[in-house]
Amino acid sequence: MSFVALSMTQALLLAALTAGAVLVLFFLKLRHRRVVVGSSLLWQRILDHRDSVSLWEKLRRWISLAVALTIALLIALALGRPYFIGTFEGPIGPVIVVLDTSPSMETRTASGQTRWDLAVDETELILSSHSGSGFMVADTSGRVLTLLTEDRNEISSAIRRMRPFGGTRKFPTIPEESARVYFITDGVDPVEVPESVTRVSVFESADNVGITAFDVQVDPTSQSGYMAYLEVVNYSDEAKDARVLLSGVGGQRLTQDLILNPEEPWSISLDLADFQGGGMRVSVQAPGDAFTLDDVAFSYLPTPTNNQVTLVTDSVNGYLETLLELSPRVELSVVRPADFENDPSTDAYVFESFVPDESPTRPSLVFGSGGVDWLPNQIGNQVEPVITTWNEDHPVMQSVPVYDLKIDESQILDLSNDSEGRTVVAASEETPLIVVQSGMTGPRTVFVAFDLAASDFAFHLGFPIFVENVMAWFSGEGLAERHSLGAIELPPDTTSVTRLDGTEVSTEIRFGRQVIEATEADLYTAISEGRRIRVTANLTDSRLSNVNQTSITSDSGLGLDMILAGNELWSFMLFAALLLVGLEWWTYNRRITL
Amino acid sequence: MPTTAIAGFDEHFMRKLEYLALVSKRFSGQFKAERRAKKLGSGLEFADYRGYVPGDDFRYLDWKTYLRLGKLLLRLYEEEQDLPIYVFVDCSQSMNYGSPSKLEYARKVAAALCYIGLANLDRVTVVAYAEGIQRELSPQRGKGQVFRVFEFLSEMEAGGETHAKEAFKLFCAGNRRRGLAVVISDFFDPNGFERGLNMLHYFKHDVFVVQVAAHEDVDPGISGQLQLVDSESRISRDVAVTPELLKAYKKEMTRFSDELGHHCVKYRLGYVRTVTDFPFEDLILQVFRQGRFLK
User: Fold this and answer.
1) Under an 8 A CB cutoff, do A30 and B228 touch?
2) What ipTM did this prediction achieve?
């Protein structure tokens, strides 16, 4: 038996004090009223006779004491809200506790503890209250943190190692069908949970003003070529005063004081002409803010560089040529395919409807053509493919919406045997459509599997941004890769990773990939093959910042105390105490008991 | 008659005694034969004739018979003797129990019996006893002594434990005439009531037992967790007085009285039992009906 409101030590202490008090009171009670009788001769006779024959008379006093003790202990221990699950439901299988590691679990509650702290406490409570055949702890990263074990110390130490973090979340696969599974969550970032799982809520309303968007984007129309987009939302129940501070590595600062109404977003687009290239940090401060992970965000403003770009095309479509000519950081030269040869003075190539047989010595952006060894293997053509997935976080695709792109025909690429470390950044259901090669074995390449003439890509608003992104990425001064908090995968040959403040970050190998664990917002710089890769880790997700938006309802999840309430014994104990009091009263008035 | 001078015996009480004395005359006629002395002597009642022998008192010669028969016959009369009545009143502490107390009731009974005894010219001795003989009033005779008896009775005080055998043994050791020994007591004697009564019986006294019980003895009316204290020995005992225990006590009380009654029947002792709320004059009538008290 365990107690919701008391530790075992406290419960034992309470029981001892109660028993002591009852014993004292019991023996005080036995100081009987003196009654003088003429002669006790006859009393003596019947009492001696009765004492000699009645076991009840011998035990009566101790039975009365036992009843009094039982009543007092039942009442006292009922205050500790005892519960016992095993007794009600018989032997149970293993107990599995899944903790929600959503970043919103770091939200501070009114008690000063975070939701995560509450979850850990409740996990301990569940484990201490069950007599299952084994325990297991898992989290919503899909990891099973412990094997099925009865070693509670191992479980406890595993729980202490756990922390909330971002990244992909999913409910782990339950290895035991007979297991009793508890999912401890705040319900802010729901995952699909099997129906048999008991949800335990640690949700508690809290104030939060958070950054829901912070990006440095290519802006061909601006003087600097880049702009920053910032969005701040107050997810508290009442209006909040907030101060937004944007700073760059060059010492540039921008401060804005705001009054934010509940759930009313405040956003701003900034021309970054006054900012030097490098890391950028934005923070928001608001009184009573209970969730700090979204109070800071980072981005990277590429340092403007001029690129010598050679456009190889025989197309009469001059849109691409015009676009490159207008780019402030591009010095364009146009050659026809027949005149193409590697030019050491060129920083990058753009191939349209042509591709050389040999890989160029410089980074290249290829539209449409394929069928050469240094490009992805083409196995056919696809008519009217529809882009269904794209990676907006990759530097070349940032701020490039491609969901409504119309493509008449594209190549079908086969990357199944790819050994070049190519990454698909846009794809239809059938085939990759935009593939980037980070340059592990050669220069960087961006391959677009369809002709500009066979699509309306060139007429999209995102096309100039795409081209600028590619050119910046080729120069090594592109936008940073955007990541949420959690595990961030880096190129396999990454030699060092540093934060914005210069501190080194250790990497680890997971499933053969080199990753870092971003537990809070930062700008990371990874060195891979002599090139710098900028990676931002931000919790700029309105879904997570809205820490008061929970999927937990009274039907779908209860506090542990409510769950345990169904198995609490206090009501039974009080009822039993009441019965015993009634019985004691009845027997006492009939002098059956003392 | 200044009866109110003696505590406890007021005029109302005295009127009752007068009534009882009148009633006793009627009862005495009924039981006269049983009380006739066997010794022949100078009484008034003719008993028999016998031949004259020298040395006989001439006053008892029946001259008429001599003239008719020519024989000197001596008239024999039953000798009238006063009856020694010993009234033993238990003055142990247990007699102080009850409301009214058993001792108070015993005083009245004793007073009534003494009065009637004195009125019948019996020699009445009153003895207060407990562990031994506390006090003794020397034999009194005639109604004129009634106030001394009453005074003696009113001065009795309860105290000490009951040890009837010792008390009666001491009494009998004084070479008393055989007589009627009326024992008024609750008979709660730790040593057993039998021994005391047997002692009187052994010395050929005609024993009459008056068992007095307080109403509280018969129905204690107590309940709960109590410490019962014996008024004589002051020994206490913790008792949970339950209805069952009370019932057992009452049964034991009845059994105790029955034992006393059976003992009296066995040894041909007079026996009446009473409780303190029973009118004492009715008790006296019961005593009369037993027939031992009156000549």
Assistant:
1) no
2) 0.79
